[in-house]
């Protein structure tokens, strides 16, 4: 099949990464096909330059939001549409299944507009081929990667391996990260901790983080990553640990991925960091879930492990806890000892 296929997956970082196996499966089965991708600026880094993506169309969401409703935004929107239409794609796959992605479809001169059942915000009305999904969109026991791969199977792909195939970091990025990590002890394993995420209800308790950090102190190289506003959290959970590297606010996403390539273990809540660490396919990734569904979102495979609560309210999938009593119980439900045991297992296997 020598076809041109366009992917609609605008954001977020984790969801974008979860869609990459779809691209790789299509290219594996149909190496001569051309693949384009429409993505928002925040997640564009992992799409631009990817070895299996031939065209990348970036929607400057941040800039559009700053301008508000403007003629310039409308002009740029139609410039993107025109650039897509110039490529004469045969198929477009709406994997986002939201109005913000589907609204592009009426403007695209593409014959086959394909999506899965279960889309939100009436997104399905803009597609002309709706594939019956095996599970509901938010089935907590069915991984979103496998859901995306159903589109590959629909297009005739017979081998749907889960692969990301991110491009290697540019030399200048490798050199910057090498300099940031220059204080690492070459005789110790590297454990990267990315403790923060955007939802308060997805945070693991600080006491548990402290217990893990105190246990690891002196045994491994400890590196902490995150955004600048995460620095206070990192300082609190690592108080008393002298030998540590704190990179919060010092790396962009491409540099963060390179930090993870230098790690033996990455520990994180359900966050973009966990998914980036999974996508670089080098460290062992330990993900700690609280409110969100591990079986739907967690990194999986031989180099991954996840922990999630055994509570009657799990997974609530809510940004804020709705309980009146024992609020945020899920943030404490996974014990630090379980995570420490897994860390020891991984470290002993990586001699």
Question: What report would you give on this structure?
Answer:
The protein is α/β, with parallel strands linked by helices and 351 residues long. The protein has two domains: 4-154, Glycogen Phosphorylase B (Rossmann fold); 172-349, Rossmann fold (3-Layer(aba) Sandwich), CATH 3.40.50. It contains 13 helices and twelve strands. The protein has helices spanning 13-29, 61-67, 71-86, 99-102, 144-154, 171-180, 206-216, 231-237, 253-261, 272-279, 294-297, 330-333, 336-349; strands at residues 4-8, 34-40, 55-59, 91-94, 112-116, 129-131, 190-193, 221-224, 245-246, 265-269, 284-288, 304-307. The strands form two sheets. Strands 3-2-1-4-5-6 form a six-stranded parallel β-sheet, with helices on both faces. It has a six-stranded parallel β-sheet with strand order 9-8-7-10-11-12, with helices on both faces. Strand 8, helix 8 (231-237) and strand 9 form a beta-alpha-beta unit. The mean pLDDT is 94.
Topology:
Elements: E1 4-8, H1 13-29, E2 34-40, E3 55-59, H2 61-67, H3 71-86, E4 91-94, H4 99-102, E5 112-116, E6 129-131, H5 144-154, H6 171-180, E7 190-193, H7 206-216, E8 221-224, H8 231-237, E9 245-246, H9 253-261, E10 265-269, H10 272-279, E11 284-288, H11 294-297, E12 304-307, H12 330-333, H13 336-349
Parallel strand pairs: 1-2, 1-4, 2-3, 4-5, 5-6, 7-8, 7-10, 8-9, 10-11, 11-12
Shape: globular
The computed structural class is: alpha/beta
Proportion in helices: 25-40%
Tell me the span between the first and last alpha carbons.
45 Å
Average residue pLDDT: 94
CATH fold name of the largest domain: Rossmann fold
Q: Can you identify the CATH class of the largest domain?
A: Alpha Beta
Count of extended strands: 12
Put simply, the count of helices is 13
Largest sheet: 6 strands, parallel
- Proportion of residues in β-strands: 15-25%
Number of domains: 2
Low-confidence runs: none
Gyration radius from CA atoms, angstroms: 21 Å
Order of helices and strands: EHEEHHEHEEHHEHEHEHEHEHEHH
The strand order across the widest sheet is 3-2-1-4-5-6
Going by CATH, the homologous superfamily of the largest domain would be: Glycogen Phosphorylase B
> At CATH's second level, what is the architecture of the largest domain?
3-Layer(aba) Sandwich
């Amino acid at each position: 099949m020598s076809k041109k296929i366009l992917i609609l997956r605008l954001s977020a970082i984790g969801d974008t990464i979860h869609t990459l196996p779809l691209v790789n499966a299509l290219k594996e089965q149909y190496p001569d096909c051309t693949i384009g991708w429409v993505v928002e600026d925040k997640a564009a880094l992992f799409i631009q330059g990817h070895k299996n993506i031939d065209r990348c169309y970036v929607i400057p969401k941040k800039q559009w939001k700053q301008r508000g409703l403007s003629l310039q935004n409308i002009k740029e929107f139609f410039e993107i549409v025109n650039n897509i239409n110039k490529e004469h794609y045969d198929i477009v796959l709406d994997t986002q299944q939201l109005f913000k992605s589907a609204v592009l479809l009426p403007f695209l001169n593409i014959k086959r507009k394909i999506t899965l059942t279960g889309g939100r915000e009436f997104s399905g009305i803009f597609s002309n081929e709706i594939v019956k999904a095996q599970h509901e969109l938010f089935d907590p026991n069915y991984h979103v990667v496998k859901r995306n791969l159903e589109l590959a199977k629909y297009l005739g792909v017979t081998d749907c391996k889960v692969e990301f195939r991110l491009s290697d970091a540019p030399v200048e990025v490798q050199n910057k990260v090498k300099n940031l990590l220059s204080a690492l002890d070459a005789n110790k394993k590297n454990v990267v901790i990315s403790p923060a995420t955007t939802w308060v209800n997805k945070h693991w308790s600080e006491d548990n983080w402290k217990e893990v950090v105190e246990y690891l102190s002196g045994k491994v190289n400890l590196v902490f990553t995150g955004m600048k506003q995460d620095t206070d959290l990192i300082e609190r959970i690592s108080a008393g640990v002298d030998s540590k590297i704190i990179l919060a606010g010092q790396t962009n996403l491409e540099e963060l991925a390179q930090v993870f390539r230098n790690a033996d273990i990455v520990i994180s809540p359900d966050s973009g960091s966990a998914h980036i660490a999974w996508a670089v396919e080098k460290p062992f990734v330990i993900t700690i879930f609280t409110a969100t569904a591990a079986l739907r979102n967690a990194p999986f495979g031989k180099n991954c492990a996840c922990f999630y609560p055994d509570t009657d309210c799990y997974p609530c999938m809510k940004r804020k806890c709705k309980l009146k009593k024992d609020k945020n119980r899920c943030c404490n439900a996974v014990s630090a000892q379980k995570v420490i045991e897994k860390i020891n297992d991984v470290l002993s296997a990586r001699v």
